[in-house]
Amino acid sequence: MEDWASLYFTLVLVILFASLLGTPLVWYLTRRFGKREVLMYVSGACCPFFFAFFFVPPQSFPTAVIYIAGVFVGLLTVVMFVVLDSMLADIIDYDALHTGKRSEGVYTVAETNLQQFIEVLTLTLTLSLTRTRTRTRTRTQTRTLTLTLITQT
User: Fold this and answer.
1) What's the burial of 2, exposed, middle or buried (CB within 10 Å: 0-12/13-18/19+)?
2) Contact 24, 83 (CB under 8 A)
3) Is the dihedral of CA 115, 121, 125, 128 positive or negative?
4) Which three-class secondary structure state does DSSP give residue 44?
5) Which DSSP string corresponds to 90-136?
6) Residue 1: DSSP 8-state
7) What pLDDT is stored for residue 138 in this prediction?
8) How high is the pLDDT of residue 150?
9) Per-residue pLDDT for the chain (153 aa), expressed as one digit of tens each?
10) Can you give the pLDDT at residue 13?
11) Which helix (H) or strand (E) holds 61?
12) Which of 52, 76, 66 is nearest to 7 (CA)?
């Protein structure tokens, strides 16, 4: 795993092909089982991979596991873009049926703001964890260096 650039670009290709090949599969599954069920089960199946990749460094995984996770990312991408947007359209139509007026702008703005809020929250959490880890490592290195200098004199 020394060549991270080729691994990254190969992983991007795996995600792309999984998305392309997974689109008809997701379409069939939503027709057969329903949009809500497909969304819940695919998200639930992907959670262990994302949980593991958040806490475990990628160097400890074999390359095959990273590619398998790429397939799950591709499928989840299709579900998030196709199924969620389709569900949003269904909600807008249902609201228009009951209220007599279309308000897709309100729903679209609410969805966009919610996505941005979650992204900001996730990035803030990730950066704060990274900063805490870096501070701890720097303090440990400083203490080790100080102890080494004290013992040498």
Assistant:
1) exposed
2) no
3) positive
4) helix
5) HHHHHHHHHHSS--HHHHHHHHHHHHHHHHHHHHHHHHHHHHHHHHH
6) -
7) 57
8) 61
9) 567 778 888 889 999 999 999 999 999 999 999 999 998 998 888 888 778 777 877 777 788 888 888 888 888 888 888 898 888 889 899 999 999 998 888 888 888 898 899 889 988 888 887 776 655 555 555 555 555 556 665
10) 93
11) none
12) 66
Rounded Cα–Cα distance for residues 88 and 94 (Å)? 10
The token pair at 18 is 């999984």
Q: CA neighbours within 13 Å on the CB side: how many for 59?
A: 2
Cα radius of gyration rounded to whole Å, the chain: 22
Question: Position 30: which residue type?
Answer: T
Sequence-distant (6+) residues with CB within 8 A of 17 are: 74
Tokens representing residue 56 in the block: 């475990």
Which residue's entry shows tokens 């057969």? 32
